[in-house]
Amino acid sequence: MNIQDSVLVIRPMEKEDMDAVVEINRECFTSDAWSKSAFEREFSLNYSHKYVLELNGSVIGYLIAWTVYDTATLMNFAVKKEYWGKGYGKKLLTYLIENFKDKVSAIHLDVRKSNMRAIRLYKSLGFKIISERPKYYSDGESAYQMVLELSTPSDSLKG
Q: What CDD domains does the annotation carry (predicted)?
């Protein structure tokens, strides 16, 4: 099967997706993996936006973003390692950006300084490094703070 024969779906995360999401999270984040209860808690937060990426009916990725006022923060995002480098993560992030572009003025995220694959992905979508958070992660590694500035509907009225 090649990609054009595949069915790719991005949809809201459901509680039934939890086992697959937790498994992907543990595969991709060793020391900083979220617990199942942390994912379950997201369903009680009205500012939490949760999506999964399905390929042929199987969850292969997910993202969680929070919106507070006019800003979004990418809280958690991962794709199964076997699908890295195939454009699936970019499709999921592009979906988020398109969905949020008229709702927020910026999307923020933190990323490990050593995660060059993710940094390249974020930069390819227009994110810029704005600062460094020293010793941000539990193992002492620092993080880059990145931001994607978006125009809001009110910006288009100013012109």
A: NAT_SF
